[in-house]
Amino acid sequence: MLSGTGLVAGYRSGVPVLSEVDIQIARGEVVGLAGPSGCGKSTLARVLTLLMAPWAGQVSVDGEPVRGFRHAAPRAQRTAIGVVFQQPRLSVDPRFTLHQIVAEPLRANRKHPVDERVAELTDQVGLTAELLRRRPHEVSDGQLQRACLARALALEPRYLVCDEMTAMLDASTTAALVGVVADHSNSTGTGVLAISHDEPLLSVWADRVVRWQPTGEEQ
Ligand SMILES: Nc1ncnc2c1ncn2[C@@H]1O[C@H](COP(=O)(O)OP(=O)(O)OP(=O)(O)O)[C@@H](O)[C@H]1O
């Protein structure tokens, strides 16, 4: 279970964006999160992926409380949670080839032979060897997002947070990427938090949907 309990988080203004938020994502479960723009969905994604420290509350990964965030996050907990953001171009180093982008997390981890694992992942997300040699400005948003998804899956995370992963993509690429995540979750038991304002998409993708009101309260 990836869980957040009593989470309070915000930015410099001192006004919390998240107030006492509780959320649980079980292994193998796809939890949808919907809510109006600005209600704090991406903030919750940052806290749950350990990229931002909450002001109060607790994140736990498989029962183990998280004691550090950002650079202080324990590596085992950080790599247990993958993340894909809305805008792939803001999530990658523009100087890297797609191969280097997918391979990045594998470099610091000796568990997998890099080239074999990259080949496996690119096949899984529907990229070709030719596309892997290109840099971000030479591919479409959809192709780059496929690379970002492959990178997120590289270290076999136990949980995956998809923050508006398909918001910039057309219907067929959206269906393809959601299909990759759903197959992956079914075969490996990865728990997924799918954040989207696309209710029809969540209704087919998620096992259950949490709906936030502007105040951050659940419906
Ligand atoms: N880096 C930041 N610095 C200051 N305020 C921020 C920052 N990021 C987000 N906020 C503010 O926090 C609030 C919640 O933002 P957040 O991005 O979490 O909402 P969201 O529900 O994901 O919105 P959207 O659906 O538009 O992506 C907003 O009022 C936003 O302006």
Notes on the structure:
This protein has 219 residues and is an alpha/beta fold. It has a single domain, classed as P-loop containing nucleotide triphosphate hydrolases (Rossmann fold). Helix content is 35%, strand content 23%. The chain contains 8 helices and 9 strands. It has helices at 41-48, 75-79, 98-107, 114-125, 129-132, 141-153, 171-188, 199-205, and strands at residues 2-10, 16-25, 30-34, 56-61, 64-65, 81-84, 159-163, 191-195, 208-211. It has a 5-stranded parallel beta sheet with strand order 6-7-8-3-9, with helices on both faces. Strands 2-1-4-5 form a 4-stranded antiparallel beta sheet, covered by helices on one side. Helix 7 (171-188) links the parallel strand 7 and strand 8 (191-195). Helix 4 crosses helix 6 (141-153). The chain starts with a strand and ends in an 8-residue tail after the last strand. 40% of the residues are buried. The model has no long low-confidence stretch (mean pLDDT 93). The structure holds adenosine-5'-triphosphate. One of its GO terms (molecular function) is ATP binding. Keywords: ATP-binding, Nucleotide-binding, Transport. It comes from Crossiella cryophila. InterPro entries: AAA+_ATPase, ABC_transp_ATP-bind, ABC_transporter-like_ATP-bd, P-loop_NTPase. Residues 2-219 form the ABC transporter domain.
